[in-house]
Automatic annotation (TrEMBL):
Designated name of the protein: tRNA(Ile)-lysidine synthase
UniProt KW keywords: ATP-binding, Cytoplasm, Ligase, Nucleotide-binding, tRNA processing
GO annotation, cellular component aspect: cytoplasm
NCBIfam families assigned: lysidine_TilS_N (TIGR02432)
Stated family: Belongs to the tRNA(Ile)-lysidine synthase family.
EC number assigned by the record: 6.3.4.19
InterPro entries: Rossmann-like_a/b/a_fold (IPR014729), TilS/TtcA_N (IPR011063), tRNA_Ile_lys_synt (IPR012094), tRNA_Ile_lys_synt_N (IPR012795), tRNA_Ile_lys_synt_subst-bd (IPR015262)
Signal sequence, renumbered to the chain: none
Gene (name only): tilS
Domain tRNA(Ile)-lysidine/2-thiocytidine synthase N-terminal, first and last residues per copy: 27-186
Annotated tRNA(Ile)-lysidine synthase substrate-binding domain residues: 228-291
SUPFAM superfamilies, alphabetized: Adenine nucleotide alpha hydrolases-like
Coiled coil (UniProt feature): none
Amino acid sequence: MRPFWPRRSPHFAACRHAVRPFDGPAVIGLSGGPDSLALAAAAAAEAKDAVAVVVDHGLQPGSADIAQRAAEQARAWGLEAQVVRVDVAPGNLEAQARRARYAALRAAGREVWVAHTAEDQAETLLLGALRGNPSGMAPREGGVARPFLTLRRADTLGACAELGVEPWHDPMNADASFRRVRVRREVIPQLCELIGGDAVPALATTAARIAQGRELVASISEGAPTDDCAELARDPAPVRRRRLVAWLAGHGVAPGGAQLEDIDALVVRWKGQGPVTLAGGRSVRRVAGRLVVT
């Protein structure tokens, strides 16, 4: 391949280094933003077996043109690229858009590569903590790979500048009505001010350790998802909750931390309490020693 990058490009070099341990076949989720553009470029430069898929959610004026430009840029770097239009179901906009996007990305049956950075990891930790369930993302999990998880956003922005490409900046990332945006633009800067330095590395490291702990629990837990309360009650709490989450996921339910605690109470602290209310008007109740989603 003829290099499309300048000889001196330290930010892009960091992006290339980050993708080297990852091999395809893969689908790269490309939005046209700086993170995913840098990921697509790095995969192309490293000759990875990857195709780029741009998911057009149709949520903003001109989204089709934005998607097409991103696909054309990926093709200019030598990647195969396509645009897929999806319909976003009513409800929580972020959650429904994510669900539609990942369904489209997984349709090819390849591992999905997404460009989450250390900043995204830090935000995930804080948002999970606010729901009573501090969480972290793994580099590889559930058919999704995150090559940039230890990379900083300054590197993806810097890589785009070095490559001479102008990334698209999603206006939703500046909309303070979304909790993630406020965490990014208000909470993390205040934490940096509080400690007199950069809070992201410590937050991202903590999130990574949580993800590693989750993987460890998964590796030692042989139990399948179940609704049998007696069987669940015999498990250690971390294993039991993992099985509960897996069982709920099979019903299309992703509980928050407080909801999971209440569902766990139906199993191990049963006193005849009523159902646990979930988002979307659904609930979990205990009936004859088994959990039921209604």
